[in-house]
Amino acid sequence: MRHFVAATAVVGFLATGLANAQMKSAVPPGMQTSPQVTQATPIPTATAPLEEARRITREEAIKLVKEKKAVYVDVRAKDQYDQGHIKGAISIPLGDILTRVREIPPKTFIITYCA
After folding, report:
1. DSSP label at 22?
2. Domain boundaries along the sequence of the chain
3. pLDDT truncated to tens, each residue of the chain (115 aa)?
């Protein structure tokens, strides 16, 4: 994800530089009395994954799990999971999601929780 954000920032910076390099002054040469000031274009940033996550109600979550269309994934540390968790939940700490995603049944809706 960091590489994506860095790449996006670099592309945005280069695009801004190219756009500014192609801008033509509306004032004829020799008529300018002050240096030309250009406004910087903000670099787009990637949206945080949590902001894009679909939210569902408790009732919808229970229904999906009962129908075996979804599974609960507890993303807390293992010691917190061991202290208590939703019955049937899979323990995959948030930092391990990408490396352990194959432990989740295929074509299943994933319901993550951390409390």
Report:
1. H
2. 1-46, 49-113
3. 333 333 333 333 333 343 343 434 454 555 555 555 555 555 555 555 667 778 999 999 999 999 999 999 999 999 999 999 999 999 999 999 899 999 999 999 999 998 7
Instruction: State if pTM tops 0.85.
Output: no
CATH architecture group of domain 49-113: 3-Layer(aba) Sandwich (3.40)
Hey, CA dihedral for 51, 69, 104, 94, is it positive or negative? positive
Residues 6 or more apart whose CB falls under 8 angstroms from that of 89 comprise 71, 72, 73, 74, 81, 113
End-to-end Cα distance, the chain: 25
DSSP secondary structure of 26-73: SSPTT---S----PPPPPP-PPPHHHHSPP--HHHHHHHHHTTSEEEE
Length in residues, the chain = 115
